[in-house]
Write a structure and sequence with these properties.
Length: about 350
């Protein structure tokens, strides 16, 4: 899973969303690939390959950081130029447009800063995702359905990307005849970066939700197995031992998932807050300007057509992001419910086996 995600994140580096090294499969040298009669030659070859890979990684990280510094410089120049240009053509919505443009700039600035200073947390997040998948598959014998998950994610990314780009294109075409478009042409690339960042976080939440669903399904099966064992006259030691191992694996996976949500807040919390805030203000301003256009405001005629193309993708992405967050909270409640039920079953079984013992 980590390899697929890093493959997708390769394209995010062009927008300043991610900074990280990507392994080159041509530089991987193992003992099976080394045709030599001496073990020392094989060790030296692997050391040289590791050194080349480390040097390539450092060079890649340096280029990406320089690229982020360049993006930050361009962001500052573009923001200043937008303020100077906009000040020469004041309108009734000057304050709202300037505030919205400033929020977009602030959100992109948070994204760039997180990519620079939260790289370790982001990489750790990807590594723990791989660890959760392996633990689910090996220790819990739970079918993760890796291919089904990534096929669904590919379709989701394609739908959201096409829907967003189509909305941007239609909005740009429909704003050609407008008297003015405020900061649209200065902030179009800011909106694209924020949109890609939100799509990236949606993908992460989909993966975490899938793992929570697998964990709840396995915990439900454990509870069902315990209820079945209570109706049996004799218990089998190996089954009880297996159930104990599964409980320990469930505990470990839940701790890893809890850690994943903490890491997600660490490396994407501020940018997520700023992006959602700018999106909510963007939706409110767009809806207000659409109402002004319908009412016949002279500077905003026919804006309801252009605003609809921008408002619809924005609302869909915000709604889906909030739906995923709520869905994850519901799965956590389901997990807690089954955990309490399992504790009650174990407590009842212990009292049935030892009726004379003193239990709190």
């Amino acid at each position: 899973m980590e390899r697929q995600l890093r493959g997708w994140l390769r394209y995010c580096t062009y927008f300043g969303i991610y900074v990280g090294a990507f392994e080159d499969s041509n530089l991987r040298v193992t003992a099976h690939n080394v045709n030599s009669t001496s073990s020392n030659f094989a060790i030296d070859t692997r050391k040289r390959a590791q050194w080349c890979r480390r040097a390539e990684t450092c060079s890649t990280l340096m280029r990406q950081r320089l690229y982020l510094y360049l993006l930050t410089l361009v962001l500052g120049v573009l923001y200043t130029h937008g303020l100077i240009t906009r000040a020469t053509m004041p309108g009734i919505s000057w304050v709202a447009a300037t505030l919205l443009y400033s929020l977009h700039v602030m959100a992109v600035l948070f994204i760039l800063l997180e990519a620079l200073h939260k790289q370790a947390q982001h990489d750790r997040f990807l590594q723990v995702l791989e660890q959760i998948e392996v633990t689910l598959r090996l220790r819990l014998q739970q079918k993760v359905q890796h291919e089904v998950l990534f096929n669904g994610l590919r379709q989701l990314i394609a739908y959201l990307f096409v829907f967003s780009m189509l909305g941007f294109a239609l909005f740009a075409l429909s704003t050609i005849w407008l008297p003015y478009a405020d900061y649209f042409w200065h902030g179009i690339w800011l909106v694209i970066i924020i949109r890609i960042r939100l799509i990236q976080l949606i993908v992460y939440l989909c993966i975490l939700r899938h793992f929570l669903q697998c964990l709840c399904a396995r915990l439900r099966s454990i509870v069902a197995a315990r209820l079945t064992l209570r109706r049996q006259i004799l218990d089998v030691d190996c089954e009880r031992l297996c159930s104990l191992q599964r409980l320990l694996a469930v505990k470990e996976i839940y701790e890893l998932l809890h850690k994943e949500f903490q890491l997600l807040n660490e490396f994407a919390g501020w940018s997520l807050f700023a992006s959602i805030s700018s999106y909510l203000l963007d939706a409110i301003c767009t809806l207000y300007w659409m109402l002004l256009s319908i009412d016949g405001f002279v500077r905003r005629r026919h804006y309801e057509i252009a605003g609809l193309f921008m408002l619809l993708p924005l609302v869909v992405i915000l709604w889906y992001l909030m739906y995923l967050c709520d869905n994850c909270q519901q799965l956590v409640r389901i997990y807690i419910y089954f955990l309490h039920l399992l504790i009650l079953i174990l407590h009842t079984s212990r009292r049935a086996l030892c009726p004379n013992c003193c239990l709190n």
